[in-house]
């Protein structure tokens, strides 16, 4: 099903068999979670992506919140726009000058956990020659809808040679520390072995202590190897594009884009040791990778892998979120993720600690479309199509006419 087809269905993008009637997701009576029968649970649930922003966005690639009712939509070209009361505000929250070739641009924003009192947020963007920048800012005095460029303080810059694999995710962990995912420097196969080199900040998840700091300090528990870059928390990553912490458990999900064979999601339970090696380029997904860099096991194996060539094929993974909203209790704890290249969406269920089963939705978006997921202050989820649409995740379980919309 193409994006145009989805929009033709009464303005509601629905994942459903072509012959089925389209239910009304917003108005349908919602049964309690405990009324879901085992047969219904086995058959699947109705998943609807309702377009809430359909115009006014150029190359959106992230959406998040600041702890209030506003949604902040990040555009690759350097703008962040606020969606509030059903509309985009006419003036962008931020306009940042960035370089945008290939995968470069303005890539994410993260607000401090106590943003309402601290007023500080962080943006991840690429500047001249592709230099990765992590910059802190605040808002203009008296205007919560306008970032204040004069307040900008760049905490960290990282030389990044190629246009692709910038990483670009920022997020605060349950430890109140800022995590940043950085790609391996680009081209293919990590030719200079950045990911397995702990002295390099490329191919890493970095961890910084920023709350209450003028710039940042390094958490003492980051250190695990003599001579490493002090910000390194985890290593052996290729292009960790979209990650998230489960807001209830603190578990971390890492979506790492593969090279020629495998797309992968890794899972780091809360409280895990630091210094995890996710394997790239010695490992790609669940398989052996390349032999050009140092071999330093043990490696963290992904909990979800999709081949480029068989089965439920994926070609560029877009990590998502564990659903913790209140609207759809039957989705509690489900991890939603997508594939940018194939336009597919999956729901993953943790069947035992660290073990996941996956279900692919029956319909797909267009190729090269699903750039990111997002979460609002209430824990409801959003899906971003880089072609300019932001969808809200909705779901339904009509008690009288249960329609399985998810295949397994
Ligand atoms: Ca890996």
Architecture blueprint of SSEs:
Layout: H1 3-8, E1 13-14, H2 38-43, E2 46-53, E3 60-65, E4 71-75, E5 79-84, E6 87-88, E7 94-95, E8 106-111, H3 115-118, E9 121-126, E10 132-140, E11 143-158, E12 169-172, E13 178-182, E14 204-208, E15 232-235, E16 240-245, E17 252-256, E18 262-268, E19 276-277, E20 283-284, E21 287-288, E22 304-307, E23 317-322, E24 335-339, E25 344-352, E26 355-360, E27 370-375, E28 381-385, E29 389-396
Parallel strand pairs: 15-19
Antiparallel strand pairs: 1-2, 2-29, 3-4, 4-5, 5-6, 5-7, 8-9, 9-10, 10-11, 12-13, 13-14, 14-15, 16-17, 17-18, 18-22, 20-21, 23-24, 24-25, 25-26, 27-28, 28-29
The structure holds calcium ion.
Calcium ion is lined by residues 256, 264, 266, 278-280, 283, 302.
Poorly predicted runs are 1-36, 399-408
What's the alpha carbon Rg, rounded to whole Å?
20 Å
Residue share in β-strands = 35-45%
**Biggest β-sheet: strands ordered side by side in the sheet:** 1-2-29-28-27
Question: Can you count the helices?
Answer: 3
The CATH H-level superfamily is TolB, C-terminal domain
Sheet having the most strands: 5 strands, antiparallel
Q: What compounds are bound to the protein?
A: calcium ion
CATH topology: Neuraminidase
Q: CATH first level: which class?
A: Mainly Beta
Spatial gap, N to C terminus? 18 Å
Q: What is the share of helical residues? A: under 10%
Structural class: mainly beta
What is the level-2 CATH architecture name?
Answer: 6 Propeller
Protein model, in words:
With 408 residues, the chain is mostly beta strands. The protein has a single domain (57-354, 363-383), classed as TolB, C-terminal domain (Neuraminidase, 6 Propeller). 4% of the residues lie in helices and 39% in strands. It is built from three helices and 29 strands. The protein has helices spanning 3-8, 38-43, 115-118; strands at residues 13-14, 46-53, 60-65, 71-75, 79-84, 87-88, 94-95, 106-111, 121-126, 132-140, 143-158, 169-172, 178-182, 204-208, 232-235, 240-245, 252-256, 262-268, 276-277, 283-284, 287-288, 304-307, 317-322, 335-339, 344-352, 355-360, 370-375, 381-385, 389-396. Strands 1-2-29-28-27 form a five-stranded antiparallel sheet. Strands 3, 4, 5, 6 and 7 form a five-stranded antiparallel sheet that branches. A five-stranded mixed sheet has the order 12-13-14-15-19, with no helix packed on it. It is globular, with a radius of gyration of 20 Å. It starts with a helix and ends in a 12-residue tail after the last strand. The relative contact order is 0.16. Residues 1-36 and 399-408 have low confidence and may be disordered. The structure holds calcium ion. Calcium ion binds next to strand 18. Calcium ion binds at residues 256, 264, 266, 278-280, 283, 302.
């Amino acid at each position: 099903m193409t994006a145009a087809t989805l929009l033709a269905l009464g303005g509601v993008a629905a994942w459903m068999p072509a012959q089925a009637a389209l239910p009304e997701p917003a108005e349908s009576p919602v049964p309690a979670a405990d009324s879901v029968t085992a047969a219904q649970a086995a058959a699947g649930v109705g998943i609807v992506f309702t377009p809430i922003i359909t115009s006014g966005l150029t190359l959106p690639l992230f959406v998040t919140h600041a702890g209030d009712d506003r949604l902040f939509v990040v555009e690759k070209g350097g703008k962040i726009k606020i969606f509030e009361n059903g509309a985009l505000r006419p003036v962008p929250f931020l306009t940042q000058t960035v370089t945008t070739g290939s995968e470069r641009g303005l890539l994410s924003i993260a607000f401090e956990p106590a943003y309402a009192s601290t007023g500080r947020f962080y943006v991840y963007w690429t500047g001249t020659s592709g230099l990765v920048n992590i910059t802190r800012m605040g808002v203009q005095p008296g205007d919560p809808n306008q970032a204040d460029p004069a307040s900008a303080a760049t905490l960290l810059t990282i030389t990044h040679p190629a246009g692709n694999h910038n990483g670009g995710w920022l997020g605060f962990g349950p430890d109140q520390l800022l995590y940043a995912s950085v790609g391996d420097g680009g081209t293919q196969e990590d030719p200079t072995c950045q990911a397995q080199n702990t002295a390099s900040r490329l191919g890493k998840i970095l961890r910084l202590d920023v709350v209450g700091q003028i710039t940042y300090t390094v958490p003492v528990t980051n250190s695990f190897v003599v001579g490493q870059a002090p910000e390194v928390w985890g290593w052996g990553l290729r292009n960790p594009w979209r990650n998230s912490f489960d807001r209830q458990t603190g578990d971390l999900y890492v979506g790492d884009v593969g090279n020629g064979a495998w797309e992968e999601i890794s899972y780091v339970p809360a409280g895990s040791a630091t210094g995890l090696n996710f394997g790239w380029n010695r490992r790609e997904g669940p398989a052996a990778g390349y032999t050009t860099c140092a071999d330093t096991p043990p490696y963290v194996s992904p909990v979800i892998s999709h081949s480029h060539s068989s089965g439920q094929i994926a070609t560029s993974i877009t990590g998502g979120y564990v659903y913790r909203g209140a609207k759809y209790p039957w989705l509690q704890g489900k991890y939603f993720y997508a594939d940018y290249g194939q336009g597919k969406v999956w729901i993953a269920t943790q069947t035992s600690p660290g073990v996941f089963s996956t279900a692919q939705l029956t319909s797909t978006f267009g190729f090269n479309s699903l750039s990111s997921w997002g979460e609002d202050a209430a824990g409801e989820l959003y899906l971003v199509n880089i072609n300019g649409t932001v969808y809200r995740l909705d779901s339904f379980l009509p008690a009288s006419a249960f329609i399985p919309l998810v295949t397994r």
